[in-house]
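Title: Prediction job returns without error message
Component: structure pipeline
Severity: low
Priority: P3
Assignee: unassigned

Description:
Job completed but the reporter wants confirmation the result is attached to the right record. Sequence as submitted:
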Amino acid sequence: MKLVIFNGSPRYKKSNSKILIDYFLIGYNKICTEQVPIHYLAKRNQNEEHKSIFREADIVIPIFPRYTDSMPGIVKEFFETIVKLELTKAKN
């Protein structure tokens, strides 16, 4: 099982989302020794890499702050890109 975590906080590694991820991994590592990569959507220059990582993962956990009942723009943009990929793949 290939688990991948995407941190969608614009605050990168200084975010509360990162704190939640760290606590999740403490519990996860008690039952599984698999290294779980954390990818930061704030690194906009790695969008193509993020898309391929998303495609190859078995399980994806997106973690992001909620802003006034919505998500950060970088997360929305990422989700929209993934949906476009899936629609394109389904047509072919």
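Comment from assignee: result matches the submitted record. The chain has one domain: 3-91.
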